[in-house]
Design a protein that fits this description.
This protein has 359 residues and is α+β, with helices and mostly antiparallel strands. The protein is 38% helix and 16% strand. The protein has four domains: 69 residues, no CATH class; 124 residues, Gyrase A, domain 2; 79 residues, Alpha-Beta Plaits, CATH 3.30.70.2320; 59 residues, no CATH class. The chain contains 13 helices and 13 strands. The strands form four sheets. It has a five-stranded mixed beta sheet.
Length: 359
């Protein structure tokens, strides 16, 4: 549709709806003195029908038309999300239009979503990995493609958690309308727009750990036995910004909060996910073991090296440590040297895990 066609549609809609009154985003149009009262934050005057038609290209008119006749869907997550993207509830129309002409970008997890002003006050949208802003990447227009593009990370490894901060790079969905944008985002981060909207409306239904654990069955029913301290360790391991871009809203129960950071994500996590349940099952079995005392012979540097190795694995930094950087405790050659020196068939420092089996 050309700009002229869009303005013609705005003109027709203005005349049609002015009789019943328009009050939207700072624009007021209503019958007055045989014509119409036109009011915006910058002006107030009475106009004839012909002059009202001439106002069809005004930003306040095209903004009204876009939201009320193109986007529509009052009280829907889609509309709320699109308005949030351009700050429609906080920024007046002229300022918004100024920003939209150059592209207004918002973050959504690892996504950068850009809204751009198009012909006749329409909006077009683009979404890509936030690290790829300004980069020349492969362009797509069909939201369905997103389902396949985000299944694996940059190394080709399957992503079991869609909201893990491992979104692959190298693609962009361009020239999207509002519906296609929201569908694309939903394929990348399922249900995040709807849950975000429910939270904003005070309607987010949170299922806490005690409820979710209580309804597990089969091999997962044992997660109910995970004690309070281990549950906090599990949340610290799985549910922080470095592991998931959601913001955790669930706790042990409605009355018992977990003393673990919730994360800074824009959209909420309303219940422990299936990956957390699977991890919790393993943590539960591990916590069943009694502690033992072991005696190891290590130099101070070797003790610190073991701690470096645990940190590197836990933080996912192993692949970042260069082979030539032997000052890093988790360096591969350093680790191999430690294994050659301190490990044999009985384990670390020659100490068996179960000494009784070797008596």
């Amino acid at each position: 549709m050309s700009a002229a066609d869009t303005i013609d549609d705005v003109e027709a809609a203005l005349v049609e709806h002015a009789a019943d009154g328009i009050d939207f985003d700072g624009l007021v149009v209503e019958p007055a003195n045989g014509g119409y009262r036109w009011e915006t934050p910058g002006e107030q005057l009475t106009v004839s029908e012909d002059l009202l038609r001439e106002r069809a290209g005004d930003p306040y008119a095209t903004n009204w038309y876009y939201w009320e006749h193109v986007v529509e869907g009052h009280d829907t997550p889609r509309r709320a999300f699109l308005r949030w993207l351009e700050g429609a509830d906080d920024i007046d129309v002229p300022e918004r239009y100024d920003e939209l002409r150059g592209g207004h970008t918002s973050s959504w997890g690892e996504l950068a979503v850009t809204a751009v002003l198009s012909e006749g006050g329409q909006r077009r949208y683009e979404v890509r990995h936030e690290d790829d802003l300004g980069e020349d990447v492969d362009a797509y227009t069909d939201p369905l493609e997103a389902r396949h593009l985000v299944k694996h990370d940059d190394e080709g490894r399957y992503r079991p958690l869609s909201t893990a901060p491992s979104l692959p790079h190298g693609w962009a969905f361009v020239d999207l309308d509002g519906s296609d944008l929201v569908q694309t985002v939903d394929y990348v981060y399922p249900a995040t727009v709807s849950n975000w909207h429910r939270e904003r409306e005070g309607e987010l239904d949170v299922d806490h750990w005690s409820e979710v654990a209580g309804r597990q069955s089969g091999i997962y029913s044992i997660v109910e036995q995970l004690d309070d301290e281990a549950l906090e360790w599990a949340a610290e391991a799985c549910c922080v910004d470095s592991q998931c871009v959601k913001r955790r809203e669930w706790d042990k129960s409605e009355d018992e909060e977990l003393d673990v950071p919730r994360g800074d994500g824009e959209f909420p996590c309303r219940e422990p996910c299936s990956l957390f349940i699977a991890a919790a099952r393993k943590f539960t079995t591990l916590e069943r073991e009694d502690t033992r005392e072991y005696t190891f012979e290590l130099t101070p540097a070797e003790k610190e090296q073991l701690e470096d190795i645990v940190d590197a694995v836990a933080d996912g930094r192993v692949d970042e440590i260069r082979e030539a950087d032997v000052n890093e405790g988790a360096n591969r050659y350093r680790a191999r040297f430690l294994r050659a020196k301190r490990m044999d068939e009985h384990g670390l420092s020659g100490t068996p895990t179960y000494p009784e089996d070797h008596e």
